[in-house]
Amino acid sequence: MIARGVRTWVRRWALWSLPRHVVIFVLLAETVAVVITAATAETAIHQRDLVLWGILALGSVVHLEAVRSIERVREGLRHNAPYVDLKSVWTFAAVLVLPTPLTVALVILTYVHLRSRLVRMPIYRCIYSCSTVILATHAAAAVLTAGLPTYPGLPGTAAGVFVIVLAAMLRWFVNHGMVVAVIMLSSPQTPGRTALGIFSNNIVEVAAVSLGAVTALAAVTQPWFIMLILPTLVVLHRALLLHQYEVAARTDEKTGLANAVHWSETARLELRRAERDKASVGILMLDIDHFKEVNDTHGHLVGDAVLKVIADTLRDACRPHDLVGRWGGEEFTVLLPGVSETTVVDVAERLRKLISVQEVPVPPENPTERIKGLTASIGAVTYPATGPALEDLLLAADKALYEAKANGRNKVMTVPHLTS
Asked: Which residues cross the membrane (predicted)?
């Protein structure tokens, strides 16, 4: 009866609704983690190892409890990107001073604690994340075993510290790479820079690994010094939260694009730079045709999915230094620094054609049904030819957009004449 209940529970996991290649990738990673861990299970464990494990486990529990309220807010602000946490302070310290089986045990403990007390992530995500850290742990342990004759244990030479740095780099690369891989496999429309995560957050993760080496030193020499590390961790968590608030303040929640305020502020700065450098700037204003019919026919959730697909299409098709924003409703704006009047029309035409081939699935009533034939009308203007100020440019772009709508939609217009 219990076994049947467990099977039923597992079958309900959202994992099985993902594409088959994603499921295979996840299960393969978890299987490899289990096999490698089993192969190292016979490693000798001494009483001192158990004491060190207890110190690091206690530190991990106290740490996560101290930042519990912060992390719950951070999880709510997170979009489809790697979740940056600081558990590696404890798990990398364990890699350095403990036999691998005990390190794996600590990794499992941190994830069980994380899910039960802080972040209510789906169980399959928790298992996969734990598996990636376990694989990264084995990779780091392999480097340390090959490079440190005293391993497990801390080296006393500069060369030994270099080996630790190599192990830390490999650990981060394996863990982060596997997280990014599953994000890209399960959500191909996610921009690569979003999946990779914010650079500053990744730097914090690297810093946490470095702090893990200091934690290992404290655990071996003066365990009470670990108490001095905890305030630093709380401050780092608050810094991550502050950064997420800053990102949320300038980001449209539904699409992940710049909101109207942030887009306008950036556009004004770009126009001032263009005035100084005698350069040009292109601006596009784009409106999805017949979007109300999508909402009326399929509902607002499907409408939101259409907005997200259009947003991702625009962002992926533009250059890294262009800025795509959601102006409001089904309207989008695109800032194109350094483009001529001819180029801005060419870019608009390319975006219009890309939108026309997009398809959006209509779940859950009929998973095979897809919305096709999406179109957009676009108004295209340039600085300084169209006007000197952002307000002038936006009014002109809006007028061109209105003319595109009035002339049959699915067109690109400039002021004052039809261009396509």
From this structure: 20-38, 90-114, 126-148, 154-174, 195-218, 224-241
CB-CB contact of 405 with 292 (8 Å): no
Is residue 419 in some structural domain?
no
Q: Are 95 and 144 in contact (CB under 8 A)?
A: yes
Residue 417, pLDDT score = 45
Total length of the chain: 420
Residue 33 has pLDDT above 90, yes or no: yes
Instruction: Give the span between the Cα atoms of 141 and 152, in whole angstroms.
Output: 9
Whether residue 166 sits in one domain with residue 277: no
Task: Identify the domain containing residue 13 by its residue range.
Answer: 2-249
On whether residue 346 sits in a domain, the answer given is: yes
pTM of the complete model: 0.65
Question: Per-residue pLDDT for 226 more than 90?
Answer: no
Q: Are strands 412-414 and 376-383 parallel, antiparallel or unpaired?
A: parallel
101 and 167 within one domain: yes
- Residue 287 sits at φ, ψ, to 5 deg, of -130, 130
Is residue 196 in a domain?
yes
Q: Are residues 215 and 277 in the same domain?
A: no
Do 56 and 90 contact (CB within 8 A), yes or no?
Answer: yes
Q: What angle do CA 156, 162, 166 make, to 5 degrees?
A: 130
> Are the beta carbons of 226 and 105 closer than 8 angstroms?
no
pLDDT tens figures, 6-21: 667 667 777 777 778 8
- 129's enclosing H/E stretch is helix 123-147
Pick from 117, 95, 129, 105: nearest CA to 208:
95
One domain, residues 199 and 290: no
**What confidence score (pLDDT) does residue 335 get?**
94
348 in Cβ contact with 410 (< 8 Å)? no
CB atoms within 10 A of CB 411: 24
How far the first Cα of the chain sits from its last, in Å, is: 68
Give the containing element (helix H, strand E) for 285. Answer: strand 281-288
Q: Is the pLDDT score of 408 beyond 70?
A: yes
pLDDT of amino acid 119 = 66
293: closest CA among 322, 332, 330, 334? 330
